[in-house]
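[Meeting: bench + compute handoff]

Bench side (C.D.) handed over the final construct sequence. Compute side (W.E.) agreed to return the predicted structure before the next meeting so the bench team could plan truncations. Sequence as handed over:
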Amino acid sequence: MMNETETRTNLINPKLKESGWVIPNLREEYPIKAGRKLVGNKRASTLKADYLLKFNNTHLAFIEAKKETLSPTEGLEQVKNYADLLKLNIAYSTNGHKIYEFDMVAGKGQYIDNFPTPEALYERLFGNQNSLIQKLLAIPLLNPEGKQERYYQEIAIRKTMEAIADGQKRVLLTLATGTGKTYVAFQIANKLHQAKWTADGKDHRPKILFLADRNILADQAINAFNHFDKDIVKITGKEIRKRGGKAPMERNFYFAIYQAISDRTVGQVSTLSDDKLIYALPPENDEDVVDGFYKLYPSDFFDVIIIDECHRGVANDKGSWRKILDYFQSALHIGLTATPKHSDNADTYTYFGEPVYKYSLIDGINDGYLTPYKVLRMTTNLDTYRPDGNDTVVSGSVDKEEYSLSDFERNLTIPERTDFIAQQLLNHINEFDKTIVFCVNQPHAAEMRDAINKHKKNSDKNYCVRITSNDGDVGKELLERFQDNEKIMPTIVTSSQMLTTGVDVLNVRNIVLVRQINSMTEFKQIIGRGTRLYEGKDFFTIIDFTGATELFNDPLWDGDLRPETPIAEEPKPPYTPKPKGEKPTGGEEDGGEGKPEILTIQLNGKKIEIASKQYFYVNANGQTLDAEAYLREIMGHLPAIFKDETQLRQVWQNPQTRKDFIKKLEAEGLSGEQLMEFKRLLKAENCDVIDVLAYLQYNTDLTTYTERVLLAKGNETFFEQYKDQRAKNFLYFILEQYERYGVKELDAENLSELIKKSQFAGNRQEALKAFGGNVQQLQTAFIDLQKILFA
């Protein structure tokens, strides 16, 4: 009888070769999911398909192989899952003797004698489709330096090609922040470029315009398109002036920010390198309008316009950016966004229609392509303020009986509160963890910077800096240093609006919210600042002082979320969303010019304290759960491993079965390091993992290490069987090591180390003599001790 590997080598591979499936049309061990990131630089189980069948650079089908003794349909559900994930219509399951083919569209399958040939399978799936889709899909992806596309990126590219071949003029892709939208855009552009696809159907290279709303985004895209370096131009005022007022037209790839090419009002200076003007507002009347540079091009000049972050105002028919799209209406418009449909970006979906493909932040986290997060939510006893006459009014005037959280830093500031929050922030982060603090406005960002620097331990002058649109070239230089993962300083950056998008800092470990967030779109983008993968970064922490993370409970996040069970006993204040209209249309608030003087209060005798403190974790469905609820949910997936508490303890009693069980926990997304953290949150640091699991699953009492060791030492029957006192002493020593250092001391591979540390001082022969001179007896005693310890 052959195992699976032998079955593949001796039975399945010859059948595939006989039908003509060889490299590059046959790919073994095709990676689908990288495995969710776990604490301790580990990952949950990866997902790979045994075989991927391709032809003309087009994915056709998956094959799941099982060893010859199993049913040929044993892997059917697996391979159906793979096919469903990659939107493929055919799947195969085989044991090498029989082949079962499943049609995902018809929803049924049948046994077949042989695998179809590549040509036959391709003809079956694509023979009735138009020649354009075949041509577009046949163009290979460009993956320089051996980079491999991820499965969802391949789907996004394929679905876009299908939409174009079907004649769609507006195409939308919704891909979470950090999942490679620019890479996808590059591959789409390359296929259209190589295919000589044009809006008018003429056989020449298409003119492609990539539109962004910030220079940093446009420049990042130019870098991603560097394969076409000599065929690229960025449309700027400087470039046009260099050409004597004429627009560049000789290249095939064009990049621009909306502000640089859109209509401008009289007197509006176009610096063309300034990202302050994020949203172009419509002029009061047409007489105030100066034509934008886009009108230097014929309206049919561009064949394709790719709109990055298209949810930010592009589809709004009242914005001047929309005029650019309307002017080039004959072009294919491809929108890229990270935000699913909801009220604050509905106009985007009205303009583009439903996305041809969606890949959410939770998908990315579960698949292992984005970094997971945990939430630390804190409230203070001064999140509302009632003037009582005891405090000093430093400036401004009191005009309310009560000020709520939404008033802070807009209508009211209390420097002592800002100071306190800065201290709490520093207390809850590691000194050199890169951190972004999102503040209410620019003055608030400056105040937070000053408060953090006041209480920091680090002496570097740039440990904490403010980076906002008002900080000019100095801010730009600091931002570049912050983005450089090899540089430690600056470590903490305070900002308000500028860093919500367009800033890739792979090693961000903390996102701190000291302002409320009313927009789901903005909330998703802020969270996205922390999701980038980085070596050694297992998770990032969202530290929330304003209740903004209540948005995780909104059905518009990534699905309906279950109610949370807080650890803290203190009741938390109700979440108060920021009133509509407080958020600026775009850019960053400077917080003062033209506004009434903000009320500044100096406290006289009031002590600021943390009112509640809660940790939350995200599960596979995107739900935020407290530590106990999160652990209970994971335990809910484990009964298949053991049927009751007795069996759970039996699993834990043996070093090998315990090791296997811990691996299964990791596959479910629960690493050993994470278990240690949960023990701390459950105030069970002095308890073994087995007791925490039994408590969660069976509501048993928590037993401490010390209590467990005392019970074991009290088992006279067990110890009396060892006549040599040295043997008894060694077993007592093992228990004491367990009490001090935990269950890792009981691992099978640690026995030699225990002998070294004990009275035997590493003399293995003396240790064996104490147990009758037999290795087996020593090992049996080691395991039997664990049986009474975990009985």
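W.E. noted at the follow-up: The longest helix spans residues 725-741. C.D. will use this when planning the next construct.
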